[in-house]
Amino acid sequence: MTKSMSRLNYYYLDYLYREIGLTRSDIESVPESRSGDDACSVIADKKYVQKQLAEVTDEQLFDAVKSLCDNPELPSRKIAIMYIVWVVALSIKEEEFTNQKTESPCQKTRKR
Question: Could you report the per-residue pLDDT of 56-75, keeping only the tens digit for each?
Fold first, then answer.
């Protein structure tokens, strides 16, 4: 479930029992059809992302990523955060795409 608050778009990540927020520009920088390693690495280093995950232990973070991805290599906390960023960004994009397809023309007009 996504929601917009201030400048972040949030996605509730079940495996961490929390919402993770990303900026619109960060979401858009994660590619949908090729490797997002470079973009996710930059985003994972941002203070606002680090702050959201500061209270999450390494074990919790690694367990969440292992639940989300098949056989991920997790040599570091940063790599785990990169996976989280990737999942959250693509989930937000997918949800927005689905919402656009299900809106009637009248709903689209009212939002303008």
Answer: 999 999 999 999 988 889 99
So what's the pLDDT on residue 7? 87
91/88 Cα distance (integer angstroms): 5
Tokens in use for 11?
Answer: 């996605």
The backbone torsions φ and ψ at residue 36, rounded to the nearest 5 degrees and listed phi first, read: -105, 20
Nearest to 15 by CA among 57, 63, 69: 63
With the C-alpha atoms ordered 58, 80, 61, 85, is the resulting torsion angle positive or negative?
positive
Segment holding 77, helix H or strand E: helix 77-102
* Averaged pLDDT of the chain: 87
